[in-house]
Amino acid sequence: QQQTDQAQGIWNRIAGFWDDYVGEAGNKWHRKLMSPATMELLTPQSGQHILDAACGNGQFSRELARLGVNVTAFDFAATFIERAQQHGAADGMAINYHVMDATDEMALRELGKQSFDGMVANMALMDMGDIRPIFRAAAHLLKPTGCFVFSFPIL
Description:
By secondary structure, the chain is an alpha/beta fold. Helices cover about 45% and strands about 20% of the residues. The chain has helices spanning about 1-20, 30-40, 60-65, 80-90, 105-110, 130-140, and strands at about 50-55, 70-75, 95-100, 115-120, 140-150. It has a 5-stranded parallel sheet. Helix 6 (about 130-140) links the parallel strand 4 and strand 5. The longest helix is centred in the first third of the chain and has 21 residues, at about 1-20. The protein is globular. The two termini are about 25 Å apart.
């Protein structure tokens, strides 16, 4: 829990800078590599319900919403959720945002058994103190045909 609290404090402090730096639409890394690869693996369809875990400023959530996907998104940094809501409101998007900790399995499970067609965690697992809870929760949250697409850097 100490590692999670520490990471949460850091992200709350730097979220505004990060959002200003990469921008509402993401940087070249997001636009040219991460988003296309994630979209290809996730294969989102209009009307599906997808969970965006550790959504940051909501850039990928908004991409999904533009496709007609029903998006639930969360991040443990309240500053990111505030920024994501501001960006989405400007576009008139109805994304269901939450301040939530991806290492809190019980809170994740409350989002609903087999409620999601897909789940994504872009460049976030490396900031989690324990990734086991999100994987256990994914098995509960995803429909039988759902998939969990995640990415992280390998050095």
